[in-house]
Amino acid sequence: LENDIDLNNQEWTPIGTENNPFKGFFSGNHHIIYNMQITGTFAFNGLFGYVNQGIINKVGIENCNIDIPNYTNRGMLGVGAIAGYYSSPNLPIVYCYASGRIRVYNTDGTECYLYNQTFVTGGIVGFLVFSSLDYCYSDVDISYGTHRDAGGLVGRAYSSSVNPVCTIQNSYNK
Length: 174
Fold this sequence. Notes:
The structure is a single chain. The chain is mainly beta. Helix content is 0%, strand content 51%. It has strands at residues 5-6, 25-34, 37-38, 44-45, 48-52, 55-69, 76-79, 83-87, 93-94, 97-105, 118-122, 125-129, 132-134, 137-143, 149-151, 154-158, 167-169, 172-173.
């Protein structure tokens, strides 16, 4: 980015899907994206929906409003202000932050749950897979049903004995 951007609460379509992931390099150059709003039914939600072998750094998201009502698609739901899903071994998310609100709910007040689904929400990243988060912070209010994975920074982090890299360092949740 070369300047701060105000999205004026216009509906945002996340960059990258599971079938067409973001694989590029994005540097916010310490700029801020204001008033990002997502109310769609995407499987992966955030500034970036699905990142695989991409790099994201030096960007702030202020006053995000991610509202996922009545999610009924089968499979996974990953929500984070920066990325819904991030898998980039040895390419950490660095110097990013987010503030605002994320809500996943049913409008009739019932529990947001379907058999065999995985719902994951984090202030910065929903799913952090074989990757790292460094020098990031979150001030995101997460409203979520019970029995799901939710975290101030990351909803769920994955690593394995084959690829043990999955760390969160020098980062915090307000």
